[in-house]
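Researcher: Let's try something more involved. This one mixes different molecule types, so please make sure each is placed in the same coordinate frame as the others.
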Amino acid sequence: MKQPSASARRAVVFTVLGVGLAAALLAGVTVGAVRVPVVELLRMAARAFGVPGVPVPDAMHVTIITALRLPRVLAAALVGCSLAVAGVAMQGLFRNPMASPEILGISAGGSLGAVAAITTGLASASVLVLPAATAAGALLAAALIYGIASVRSGTSLLFIVIAGMAVSSLFNGLVSGMLLFSKQYEVNAYLFWTMGDFEGRSWQHLALAAPVLLPGVAALGLFSRELNLFTLGEEGARSLGMNVETVKRLLLALSAIVTGAAISVSGPVGFVGLLVPHLLRLLVGPDHRVLVPASALGGAAFLLCCDLVGRTVAPPFQIRVGIITAVLGSPYLLWLVVRSQRRGRA
Amino acid sequence: MPARLLEAAGLAYDAGGHRILDGVCLTADRGDLVGVIGPNGAGKTTLLRLVCGLIPPAEGSIAIGGRPLAAMRPAERARRIAFMSQDTGQAFAFSVTEVLLMARYPWLARFEGETDADRERTRRALAYVGLAGFEDRSFTDLSGGERQLVMFARMLVQDTEVIALDEPSSSLDIRHQDRVFSMARELARERRAVVASVHDLDAASRWCSHLVLLDRGRVAAAGSPEEVLRSANLDPVYGVRTLVSANAAAGGLSVAVMPERLPDRGLRVHLVGGAGSAVNLTRELLRLGCEVTGGIAHEHDSDEKLWRSLGVEHCAVGAFSRIGEEDIDRAAPLVEAADLTVLCPFPVGMGNLGNLRLAARARRLVVLKPGPGDMPRGFFAEEGRRVFAEATAGADAFGYEQLIEELKRSGKPPQPR
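Model: All components are placed in one shared frame. Result:
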């Protein structure tokens, strides 16, 4: 693989991702129980920009687009982008293509925060409580993983998976314990949340999450070079002059906050952080300065498509997006394990 | 005295409740290639990691160019000292160029990208280590030796004045091993200070300007290779009996491990040799734990050189000179003190005729038959054939293997038949 062809390949991948994301956004707002013609969309856009002489679009269409579909697709794109970037950061940090917020138990930590907020009734006090509690739970799990990984710096695949499983089951156990002592409607609210979906996500959800997610994702992107250095091992990174402990803590905290805030919007949607970066790494190579933006685009497009599939595959039912990603992600994860076993790198 | 470029004093390090390094000093100036030697677990790698600031010392100080390492920010430290680890593991399939460009990290500002000059630097470094054309290869697809060479190139790209190499040749074949050491010395000559942990003592003697011998976390000896690589220093540290000799072929010293000397094998054997006929037997007998003496040989003869380099007590005469009666008298005490004298299969001429007369004085004489690879025992003078017959009358003739077997089996001189 020559240098020019590598950059040409990257250009192709980015073009495909960009076009794909735009197409998914467009499809996301037009397709659904009520089909909104693209012409109507163009009319709305033209009027929004004050172009004179454009016919007035149908009022119902305007409502469907602006109040229902636009916030929904933007939420899906934002969450997909955030989870994928958090996944890239985790994989780079632990030099391990299998690390991701869900495998490391950070999502489970978020769930614990969420259930705590719901069962204590605090979640209904303010819309800020659920996202904050979710992020706090994710941070707690990240701190645990940091502690475990610091005890033994060699983070083999098996070790990370087992540590993540331990953290996950600890938090899941705590969640179950909390649910045991809560009221039926709270259990329902929690279960509803855990399935992960974008139905009924409003501008308010976006307004809460975006100010955390966008800067968080951008900040993770700024550490691309450090993520590259982590693949040399912590000692290798240190010998090249990186302040390893500080960067590690910062990246873990950022990833946890981003994951927590993202799943507070959507519920714990699995596999995005694992599947998207891994797939893109095969296409654009491991350089995080390319991989992070590619994953951001890819994660957004992927989750949008999953949401779209869930909405359209079996009308009038909507299959929740978490189910779609799990159905797509589990076989991929299995394939990944089998492949790394074959290569003897597990 | 001006400060050395790298100055580490009184270093101590604790791990798992044990002091694994204590009171270690290490200095290196521009132009030095300092080798750190010692057995496994002596603390070589720990010392290098301390010097590079990868782990903090429990006690002691490290300074580069007079500036304490502890006062440097990580990036400044990485601009002054580079570390080449034994571990070249890599999780993701970065290209060789990408791996090399990572070494520019300490030189780049937060939002600064690598420049064309940086890329040019990686190309030059790759060409230097002999991997031109590997730029776009995936690092994970390289062999262990190639990875190690890339790591060496990475250090060049990092461009520091002090370089620490941890077992730089551990996974390399002999050609690349030699290449890595000669590159390390070249770097030193370019006014850098190079410190390397080395297992191969022969290579250390050949390439290093100074050696530091570590023993369980302490410095057992330090100085020039000739000063450090002595059996008196090495034996207690490595816990074996070593034999240090001049390496005639490659230069430097050669360190060989001898088996434990068994008390009942302390046989004293005198080798009457010359023309290299005693070389193999000398080595083999020393390995068996025999006490070997030699002579008479001519100076600069390969037997004489070996005996000299091994410290074997022997008797020699000037090159091309004839062995006279006084020489025989000089050598006679060695022969008479020997439990066994072996007459090696050297060609007999006028110059070494005296050796046959010397052999005749042996308490117990064995004539060594020329082996399949040896030249047949020649006689350049009729007198030689006669003297040979006289001297070896009643002596047994043994093949090389036969003699060694006999000595191994009984530990005594072969009994007369």
